[in-house]
Amino acid sequence: MFEIIRRSEQKPSPKGTVTFEGEPYGGQVSMFVMNSPPGHATGLHKHPYSETWVLHSGEAEFTVNGETVRAYTGDIVVVPADTPHSFANVGSDRLDIVCIHASGRIQQENL
């Protein structure tokens, strides 16, 4: 069996983020699909699993375990489990990014 979650069934947040958790569909991956405005940022947090980001367009600044680095269109960023991190859209355009969680459910501890 397979699942297709049609765009019309996805409920974006007011800032345009779609949250997907794979477990209800038999999947072992969850994700945020974001298209965030300039200046949008996440707070510092961590997960008990790794997180991977794929930047489709835009420019983001990541803070990972106290170190800050920039990522650009086409870059992939990976953070290990239990590592404090955050990111912000530091570009002048929208940030189109997929935040992939190596878990069927999103588990986040805000710091």
| Span of the ends, CA to CA | 39 Å
Order of helix and strand elements from N to C terminus = EEEEEEEEEE
Structural class: mainly beta
| Number of strand elements | 10
Overall radius of gyration? 14 Å
Mean pLDDT over all positions: 96
How large is the share of residues in beta strands? over 45%
Low-confidence stretches: none
The percent of residues in helical segments reads: under 10%
Number of helices: 0
What's the shape?
A: globular
Main β-sheet description: 5 strands, antiparallel
Q: Biggest sheet: strands side by side, in what order? A: 1-2-9-4-7
Describe the 3D structure:
- By secondary structure, the protein is an all-beta fold.
- Helix content is 0%, strand content 45%.
- It is built from no helices and ten strands.
- The protein has strands at 18-21, 30-36, 45-46, 51-57, 59-64, 67-72, 76-79, 85-89, 95-101, 109-110.
- The strands form three sheets. The chain has a five-stranded antiparallel β-sheet with strand order 1-2-9-4-7, with no helix packed on it. A three-stranded antiparallel β-sheet has the order 6-5-8, with no helix packed on it.
- A hairpin with a 2-residue loop joins strand 5 (59-64) and strand 6 (67-72).
- The radius of gyration is 14 Å and the shape is globular.
- The termini are far apart.
- The mean pLDDT is 96.
